[in-house]
Amino acid sequence: MKTLVIYTSKYGATEKYAKWIAEELQADIKEGKNVSSDTLQGYDRIIFGGGMYAGSINGIDIITKNESILLGKDLVIFSVGLLDGSKTENQPGLQESMERNLKKEILEHAKVFHLQGALEYNKLSFSHKMMMNMMRKIIAKKPAEEQNESDRAIVNMKQNPVDFANKKNLKPLLDVCK
């Protein structure tokens, strides 16, 4: 099956995952800004990845603008963010974000995954720093025993960069592609 991995990455974690996927599946890989409708036509499987910021998936318009083409293909979509998508407590919120980003037809057709990414405060854009500082203030008010791994990463983000990106996180995604 001829496969194309498409990614949009602001800070690097999504790109890292996309490269690992392409390597594992021996697929072509392109940055989202270099993909057109014509590009999509030449592939049987499309794998798209974008970073999730405040519930929006970076570059998702590649999917939404090409729905008619993609509904005829094997489609895999992954988002990347601080939340651990394998944890049950995070799944409802991640599902809500996917539903806000994608039409029902695409969600029913695609295989969807969320992968845990990275956070390096000094690399964030000004607007992302502002947003993360607001989140930090809210999370810091929670008792320490109620904070999860992502919460602790946000509370300590200025002193301790974190990188949860790991090849092992790709196993469920790769399993549906093999």
Give me the secondary-structure topology.
Elements: E1 3-8, H1 13-25, E2 28-31, H2 37-41, E3 45-53, E4 56-57, H3 61-64, H4 67-70, E5 74-81, H5 91-101, H6 104-109, E6 111-116, E7 118-119, H7 126-140, H8 149-155, E8 162-163, H9 171-177
Parallel strand pairs: 1-2, 1-3, 3-5, 5-6
Antiparallel strand pairs: 3-4, 7-8
Helix pairs in contact: 7-8
**What is the domain tally?**
2
Fraction of residues in H or I helices: 40-55%
CATH topology of the largest domain: Rossmann fold
Proper CATH architecture of the largest domain: 3-Layer(aba) Sandwich
Distance between the termini: 10 Å
Low-confidence region ranges: none
Q: Counting H and I runs of at least 4 residues, what is the number of helices?
A: 9
